[in-house]
Amino acid sequence: MKNDRMIAQLRKLRQRREDHAREVVAAHQTKVGEARHNVEAASRMLAEHLRRAIDEQNAAVSGLTSRVVKATELHMAQSRYEASLTRAGQIQAQGEAAVLVQQQREVELAEAQHRHVQSRKALLKLETLAEQVEKRTAPRRAATAELLDDDEGRIPHAPHER
């Protein structure tokens, strides 16, 4: 009986651990999803910025053709180009940081999934053990129950025998 209670307590404990591991995996999956979304958003933002920058540069260059251009106009166009290039670099750096975060979260998710699999295996192993113990003790319990039934049947007859 002690073994049965101990196995039941271990089963509860391992079940809680497995439930917790499953919750941790779900949380990590959410974080990975958010990280992927951030990477996609950074990529879209960079593509949109580059498209606008190209359109602005084409407009600036077309405004400078077919006429006499002052040096200040060239400097302003160059300043806008450099500012756009700097902003593109910043957006690209944000995208690279988002990719690194995504990769880190994917590693954490893989670790959490591994821990969940391990806790699930431990729970299954304990359940198998409990089933084996139950199979081994079933004949003993049946025999004990039979003896108790026999003893109960004898008790009413015992006073008559005296």
- The geometry reads as rod-shaped
From the N-terminal CA to the C-terminal CA, the straight-line distance is: 36 Å
**SS-derived structural category:** mainly alpha
**Rg estimate, integer Å:** 37 Å
The share of residues in extended strands comes to under 5%
- The low-confidence runs, each spanning 5 or more residues with pLDDT under 50, are none
> Helix count?
2
Describe the overall structure.
This protein has 162 residues and is mainly alpha-helical. Helix content is 95%, strand content 0%. The chain contains two helices and no strands. The chain has helices spanning 2-64, 71-161. Helix 1 (2-64) runs antiparallel to helix 2. It is rod-shaped.
In short:
This protein is mainly alpha-helical. It has helices at residues 2-64, 71-161.
